[in-house]
C-alpha cells in the first residue's frame, strides 16, 4: 500500500505531460491572413505543410515506402511548376508502425503544423485518427476504401469503396464471365472493415442477381487455404471472390487448381502483388484470376498513370512496381485539387480545405481513378465504377487492364 | 466420404507442421524454462534464409543453411540474453522473448518488404493423388519428415546421455547440475533443436499450398501455441499430439462450416483456442504434461 501514492503521483505527472503536449494553441504554428487568402495551421507565406502518417517499420512498410517516394516526387514536381497558391508544398512524414496509439500521438503532435493529412495508412490507424481529425476539421486522405470511412466529411476516399468493389465483382461474374441465376460464389475474406465490407457488397449483388454466397472467414495468419478451398469445391461454387491479401490469393488459386476446380477468382484491390508470379502458383494465377481495383493498374495507358510511373521510376529506378504507384499519385492529385480549390475560395485553412473537398463534385485524375469523382454526398462512395484487370505475365506489374466497369448491383447498393 | 477424408488429411498434414513448431516451444521450455515467444520469428528466419540462398547454392543446401542459421540464432539468444538475465523469472524471460521477436520480425519485414519470396522447393505445386483425394506433395513430404524427426527426438530423449541429461535438467535443474550435468550444454542443445524444428516447419509452411516467404508466416507460427499448451507445456509428445488435434479440428470445422453456421462465421479461427480451454478445464496439465505436485 505504501507505494500507491508515489505511483499515483507519477501517473498524474505522465497524464499532465501528455496533456501538455496536446494542448498547443491551434493558431500558434501558422495563422493569420496572407493577401486575399485566409490561412491557418500548416500554411505560411511561403509553404504549405501536409502530413503523412504511414507505416515505415511495420507490416506494410514496403508498400508504404513506395507511396512516400511517389508523394515526394509529385510534390517536388508541383513545386517546380510554381507550387500551390504561390507556396511550396512540404511533407511531414511520420511512422506510426501500424500502431493506432502511436498514430493518435503523432497526429496530436503534428496537427497544429499541417493544413491536411495526405495519408493515414492502415485500417485500425485511420479509424483512430479520423474522428479526431473530424473534430478539428482536418482533411484526411489515403485511408483505404472501407465504407466506414465514408461517414467522415473530412475524408477523401480514393475511388470506389470495398463494398462497391465486391458488388461489381458479382455483377462482372454474371455479365462477363458466364455465371447465371442459381449459381453459387465463394467469398473468402478477412473479417473487419476491409473483407467484411467487400462481403456486404457481394451479398447485396448476389441477392439482386439470384446467386448464392458461400462465405469463408479467415485471418491474415492463414496462408494455407487447403481446407477452405476444399470446402468451396465441395459446395460446388462457380467462382470465388477474395477480400484478403496476396498470400491468400496465391494459396487459394493454387489449391483450387490442384483440385481441378477451373473457376474464376476475383481479388479486391489489395489482393494482388506481382511477386506472386514468381511462386509455384503462377501458372494457376495466369489461368483464371482477375483483380477489381479502385485505382487503375500500373500497366494502364491512361495519361495520369503513365505520368505517375515516369515520376516513380525516375525517383527510384529499382523500386517495386505495383498499383501503389498510381494510387499515391492519384491521392496527391486529389489533395492538390482540394488545396487549389481552397486557395481559389480564399480560405486555405484546414476548415477551408475540408469545405473545398465537400464542394468537389466532378474530380478528374487523368485516368488514375474513374472520372467524375463526387465528394458532395457524405456517406456515399465517390464513384461506383471500378477497374477490372486480368493477371498477366506480359503486362507490367502483372495486371492487364481489361476495362472500367460499373454493374447494376453496384449502382443500387445503399450505404447504411 | 472422400471429402471427409480430404479434410482429415488436410488437417493431419497441416497439424504435423504445427507439431514441429509446438515441439520447439516445448523443448525450449523444458530445457531452459523460457516461454519462447520469439519462436515465430525464428520460423520466418529459417524460411527466409532458404529463400535468399537457394538461387545460388540450390534448394537442399539452402535448407541446410536455413536449419543451421535458425539453430545458431537460437543458441545465441540463449547464450547472450537468457543466461545473462539478472532476474531468472519466467515472466521476465517471456517479455524479453517478445522483444527479441519484435526486433527479428521488424528486420525480416524490412528485408522482405511487400514481396513474396519463392522458396525454390523442387516439388513446386505438385500434388499427390490417391483415390479421389489430392494432397500437396509438400505436405506429404512434411508428414514424412515430421515422423522421422519425432522418431529422432524420441531416440535422443530416451536413448542418449545428452537427451537423458536434458530430461533430468528439465525435471530438476539444481539437482541435475549437482549430478554433473552441464545445464549450459543442455540449454544450448534445446535452443538449437528448437531452431532446427522451426526452420523445417518454416520450409513446409512457406511451400505450396502457401505461396512463399512473407512476414505473415511469423503469425502462422502462433497457431502452434494452442497445440503446445494443449499438449502440456513440457511435453514433446504432447506437442505432437496437440498439433494433430488442432490441425484436424480446424480443418473439419472449416470444411463443415456450412453445417455449423449456427456457431457463426469464422468458427474455424477460434476453435483451436476453444479446444485448448476445454482440455485445460478437464486436464489443467494438458494432454501429456507432467502434473505439478503440490504438498499442502
UniProtKB/TrEMBL annotation, chain A:
Residues 48-392 form the Leucine-binding protein domain. It holds the Pfam family Peripla_BP_6. Keywords: Signal. Residues 1-22 form the signal peptide. The keyword Signal applies. InterPro entries: Leu-bd, Peripla_BP_I. It comes from the Bacteria. Belongs to the leucine-binding protein family. This is Amino acid/amide ABC transporter substrate-binding protein (HAAT family). It comes from Geodermatophilus tzadiensis.
From TrEMBL, chain B:
It is found in: Cell membrane. One of its GO terms (molecular function) is transmembrane transporter activity. CDD domains: TM_PBP1_LivH_like (cd06582). InterPro entries: ABC_transp_permease, BCAA_transport_permease. The chain crosses the membrane at residues 12-29, 34-51, 57-81, 133-157, 188-207, 213-231, 238-256, 262-282. It is a multi-pass membrane protein. It comes from the Bacteria. One of its GO terms (cellular component) is plasma membrane. This is Amino acid/amide ABC transporter membrane protein 1 (HAAT family). It comes from Geodermatophilus tzadiensis. One of its GO terms (biological process) is amino acid transport. Belongs to the binding-protein-dependent transport system permease family. LivHM subfamily. Keywords: Amino-acid transport, Cell membrane, Membrane, Transmembrane, Transmembrane helix, Transport.
Amino acid at each position: 500500500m505504501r507505494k500507491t501514492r508515489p505511483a499515483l503521483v507519477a501517473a498524474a505527472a505522465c497524464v499532465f505531460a501528455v496533456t501538455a503536449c496536446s494542448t498547443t494553441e491551434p493558431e500558434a504554428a501558422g495563422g493569420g491572413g496572407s493577401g486575399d487568402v485566409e490561412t491557418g495551421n500548416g500554411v505560411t507565406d511561403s509553404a504549405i505543410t501536409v502530413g503523412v502518417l504511414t507505416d515505415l517499420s511495420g507490416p506494410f512498410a514496403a508498400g508504404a515506402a513506395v507511396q512516400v517516394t511517389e508523394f515526394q516526387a509529385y510534390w517536388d514536381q508541383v513545386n517546380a511548376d510554381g507550387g500551390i497558391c504561390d507556396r511550396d508544398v512540404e511533407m511531414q512524414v511520420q511512422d506510426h508502425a501500424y500502431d493506432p496509439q502511436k498514430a493518435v500521438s503523432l497526429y496530436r503532435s503534428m496537427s497544429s503544423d499541417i493544413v491536411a493529412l495526405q495519408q493515414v495508412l492502415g485500417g485500425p490507424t485511420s479509424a483512430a485518427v479520423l474522428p479526431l481529425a473530424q473534430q478539428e476539421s482536418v482533411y484526411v486522405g489515403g485511408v483505404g476504401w472501407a465504407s466506414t470511412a465514408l461517414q467522415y466529411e473530412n475524408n477523401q476516399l480514393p475511388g470506389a469503396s470495398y463494398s462497391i468493389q465486391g458488388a461489381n465483382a458479382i455483377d462482372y461474374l454474371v455479365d462477363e464471365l458466364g455465371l447465371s441465376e442459381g449459381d453459387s460464389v465463394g467469398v473468402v475474406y478477412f473479417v473487419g472493415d476491409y473483407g467484411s465490407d467487400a462481403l456486404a457488397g457481394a451479398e447485396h449483388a448476389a441477392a439482386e442477381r439470384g446467386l448464392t454466397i458461400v462465405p469463408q472467414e479467415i485471418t491474415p495468419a492463414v496462408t494455407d487455404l487447403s481446407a477452405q478451398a476444399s470446402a468451396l469445391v465441395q459446395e460446388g461454387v462457380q467462382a470465388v471472390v477474395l477480400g484478403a491479401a496476396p498470400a491468400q490469393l496465391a494459396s487459394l488459386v493454387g489449391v483450387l487448381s490442384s483440385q481441378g476446380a477451373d473457376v474464376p477468382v476475383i481479388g479486391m484491390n489489395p489482393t494482388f502483388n506481382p511477386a506472386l508470379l514468381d511462386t509455384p502458383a503462377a501458372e494457376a494465377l495466369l489461368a483464371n484470376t482477375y483483380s477489381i481495383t479502385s485505382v487503375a493498374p500500373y500497366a494502364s495507358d491512361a495519361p495520369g498513370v503513365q505520368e505517375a510511373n515516369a515520376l516513380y521510376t525516375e525517383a527510384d529506378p529499382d523500386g517495386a512496381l505495383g498499383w501503389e504507384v498510381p494510387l499515391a499519385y492519384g491521392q496527391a492529385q486529389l489533395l492538390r485539387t482540394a488545396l487549389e480549390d481552397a486557395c481559389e475560395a480564399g480560405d486555405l485553412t484546414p476548415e477551408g480545405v475540408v469545405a473545398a473537398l465537400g464542394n468537389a463534385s466532378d474530380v478528374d485524375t487523368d485516368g488514375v481513378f474513374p472520372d467524375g469523382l463526387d465528394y458532395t454526398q457524405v456517406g456515399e462512395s465517390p464513384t461506383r465504377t471500378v477497374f477490372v484487370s486480368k493477371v498477366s505475365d506480359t503486362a507490367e506489374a502483372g495486371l492487364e487492364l481489361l476495362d472500367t466497369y460499373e454493374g447494376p448491383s453496384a449502382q443500387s447498393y445503399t450505404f447504411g | 466420404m472422400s471429402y471427409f477424408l480430404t479434410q482429415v488429411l488436410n488437417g493431419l498434414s497441416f497439424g504435423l507442421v504445427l507439431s514441429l513448431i509446438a515441439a520447439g516451444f516445448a523443448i525450449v521450455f523444458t530445457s531452459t524454462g523460457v516461454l519462447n515467444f520469439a519462436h515465430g520469428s525464428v520460423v520466418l528466419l529459417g524460411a527466409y534464409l532458404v529463400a535468399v540462398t537457394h538461387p545460388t547454392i540450390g534448394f537442399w543446401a539452402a535448407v541446410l543453411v536455413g536449419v543451421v542459421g535458425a539453430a545458431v540464432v537460437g543458441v545465441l539468444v540463449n547464450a547472450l540474453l537468457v543466461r545473462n538475465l539478472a532476474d531468472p523469472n519466467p515472466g521476465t524471460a517471456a517479455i524479453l522473448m517478445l522483444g527479441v521477436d519484435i526486433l527479428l520480425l521488424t528486420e525480416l519485414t524490412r528485408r522482405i518488404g511487400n514481396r513474396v519470396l519463392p522458396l525454390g522447393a523442387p516439388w513446386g505445386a505438385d500434388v499427390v493423388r490417391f483415390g479421389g483425394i489430392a494432397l500437396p506433395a509438400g505436405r506429404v513430404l512434411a508428414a514424412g519428415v515430421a515422423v522421422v524427426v519425432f522418431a529422432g527426438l524420441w531416440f535422443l530423449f530416451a536413448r542418449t546421455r545428452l537427451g537423458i541429461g536434458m530430461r533430468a535438467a528439465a525435471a530438476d535443474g539444481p539437482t541435475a547440475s549437482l549430478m554433473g550435468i552441464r545445464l549450459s550444454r543442455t540449454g544450448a542443445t534445446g535452443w538449437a533443436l528448437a531452431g532446427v524444428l522451426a526452420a523445417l516447419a518454416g520450409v513446409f509452411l512457406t511451400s505450396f499450398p502457401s505461396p512463399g516467404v512473407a512476414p505473415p508466416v511469423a503469425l502462422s507460427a502462433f497457431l502452434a501455441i494452442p497445440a503446445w499448451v494443449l499438449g502440456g507445456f513440457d511435453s514433446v509428445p504432447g506437442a505432437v499430439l496437440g498439433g494433430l488435434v488442432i490441425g484436424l479440428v480446424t480443418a473439419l470445422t472449416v470444411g463443415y462450416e456450412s453445417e455449423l453456421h449456427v456457431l457463426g462465421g469464422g468458427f474455424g479461427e477460434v476453435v483451436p483456442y476453444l479446444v485448448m480451454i476445454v482440455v485445460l478445464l478437464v486436464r489443467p496439465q494438458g494432454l501429456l504434461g507432467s502434473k505439478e505436485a503440490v504438498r499442502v
